[in-house]
Design brief:
Distance between the termini: 22 Å
Radius of gyration: 21 Å
Number of strands: 12
Bound molecules: ligand FNR
CATH topology: TIM Barrel
Structural class: alpha/beta
CATH class: Alpha Beta
Number of helices: 16
Amino acid sequence: IDLSIMSPQDAANHLFKNSEILAPMVRASTTPLRTLALSHGASLVYTEELVDRSISASERIVNTELGTIDYRVPKHTYSLKVQKRMAADKDNPDSENGAILLRIDPIVERNKLIYQIGTGESNLALEAATKVISDVNGIDINMGCPKKFSVSGGMGSALLSDTKRACDIISTLRRNLSKPVSAKIRLLDPEDPRPTIDFVKALISSGANAITIHGRIVGDESHTMARWTTLVEVVRQLKQTESVPIIVNGDLYTRADILEIKSRSLCDGVMLARPALYNVSLFRKGEAEETTSTTDEIPLPQFQSTDHSGYYGYNSPLLHSRTSVVQEYLAHCIRYRAHSKNAKYVVCEMMNSRRAPTNRVPYLNMQYESGQTIATVCKCRSLDDLVKVWDVKYTIPFPKTT
Ligand code: FNR
């Protein structure tokens, strides 16, 4: 399929309708996790949020050795102190050349990659988007991050209370780019669907081709349950008048959760962040899901059911073991030459069930069969150490490059 000859809205419909998406996650949604999620059946993957100015200052390199496109922060732009530290970091495969901001596999991620920008200004957003647009399938604006770093720069959730600025960013990108432009937002009110609906409608009028809604408001703790009831109401009402794809996000920990939220909200797709980090094989669909176009024919559990132990639950035969997904992840880290510190961070997050709803999804509490703990992972000094600790036995082949 050649998405480039489609209108942005047709391309967005193709990408987002019936989608199951790996969410943008800072430090986690890099090449290894994205390509692993795709191998398990994710239909679309987001980059981590990368701030407009840093991507604009990067250089684009065709990496013939790895078969990737790299966006790299040139070494000379670092302070001497940082340059020295990088040079001394023997495990940094890119220490000679500067840090990799974004690495794209143009074959595996073809027609499946969205770049998420952290931005608060339309001109800066456009500059960053223009830089990467030829290597990605769409541009998403982060309108949900509540962290001080984002909000103080007018980015992330600051845009939720500045509709004019948010719309200006969307319309500027829409006028100047020929690929889909989308936004990821949070609920604006815990119970009243109206403010969120009004905000989404304003973005759509400004040209947004798809919207993702995270079912929490600014100020909600990440470990408390997402507000599905309000989220469902928002999406159902939006779907009565709007045709652009609407994606839902928040606490979708089992196939049962995914099927339920789809059938209840009539959303066009789902996005998974922590659930995919804890077990990326959650993107694997059951046979019934594969062969039906609507979820109506699949016997669904009750909404917010406490029974997650069946075929679509946490004991599903569809799932790979949590040990196996860490091993797979490390094989992808080797393939894409991830920095060991980054790999370590992500493996620790995969193992860490501190914020997981272990009452609903008890297997997230399990011990690893070979006794790996976060402490043993922290002791690793290189990818080789990690591979040994996890007994990774296979490698991901490199594609033949021309
Ligand atoms: C996030 N989230 C996030 N959101 C976003 O728009 N851009 C980002 O870069 C990040 N980074 C990020 C890092 C990590 C480690 C986590 C856990 C989360 C928020 C994320 O995409 C999602 O909206 C929430 O985590 C809720 O979804 P889940 O986790 O319940 O599926």
